[in-house]
Design a protein that fits this description.
By secondary structure, the chain is an alpha/beta fold. The protein has a single domain, classed as Rossmann fold (3-Layer(aba) Sandwich), CATH 3.40.50. The strands form two sheets. Strands 4-3-2-5-6-7 form a six-stranded mixed sheet. Strands 1-9-8 form a three-stranded antiparallel sheet, covered by helices on one side. Strand 2, helix 2 and strand 3 form a beta-alpha-beta unit. Helix 1 packs across helix 2. The relative contact order is 0.21. Bound molecules: inosinic acid and magnesium ion (MG).
Length: 185
């Protein structure tokens, strides 16, 4: 495989390259800048998977924004969603009256984000929008509006650019399909 990291040997193939990601993140930044003109949103990173996307996207945003972090667990070390959502780390600040932009790595069943969205609206956020790097529309189990999405992908388990399998592969600069031999014993 055309890459320098040894962990690329565990991929079936690269699905989205770092160059494609960089171009989309720039384009998304421009859309968000236009949509949030005159506003000062709280941009919330959903830990840990969104960290790299978040760091790249933030640097495209020409807005007087705040950042905050939230951690949710729903997966354990398997590749299939449990559907059970648990708040592991809450925001540091109140979002009452604020425009919130939630930044996530991937929307799969949609359970995690629909929980987060309703929780933030319940706390009095003026608006809650979602920005995701990846979307697997074929796996959606709840009705969820995703305002900003970079890439629709097929129903495959992917890693890299923040996304993990059992906490590994987050550091890969590209997004790739994990070879099933890694998780089928
Ligand atoms: P949802 O609640 O089913 O939408 O699950 C969303 C979460 O599941 C994401 O934030 C990821 O942490 C995880 N996830 C879903 N699909 C993948 C994948 O293909 N690779 C890595 N993590 C994934
Ligand atoms: Mg996640």
């Amino acid at each position: 495989m055309n890459n320098e990291f040894k962990q690329y040997q565990d991929l079936e193939r690269v699905l989205v390259t770092r160059e494609e990601i960089a171009a989309k993140v720039k384009e998304l930044g421009r859309r968000i800048n236009a949509d949030y003109q005159g506003k000062s949103p709280v941009v919330v990173c959903i830990l840990k998977g969104a960290v790299i996307f978040f760091a790249d996207l933030l640097r495209e945003l020409d807005l007087p924004l705040d950042i905050d972090f939230m951690a949710i667990s729903s997966y354990g070390s398997s590749t299939k969603s449990t559907g059970v959502v648990k708040l592991v780390k809450d925001l540091d600040r109140d979002v009452n009256g604020r425009d919130v932009l939630v930044v996530e790595d991937i929307v799969d069943s949609g359970m995690t984000l629909s929980y987060i969205k309703s929780e933030l609206l319940h706390r009095g956020a003026s608006s809650v929008r979602i920005a995701t790097l990846l979307d697997k529309p074929a796996r959606r189990r709840v009705n969820l509006e995703v305002e900003y999405s970079c890439f629709n992908i097929p129903d495959a388990f992917v890693v890299g650019y923040g996304l993990d399998y059992d906490e590994k592969y987050r550091n890969l600069p590209d997004v790739g399909i994990l070879h099933p031999r890694i998780y089928t014993k």
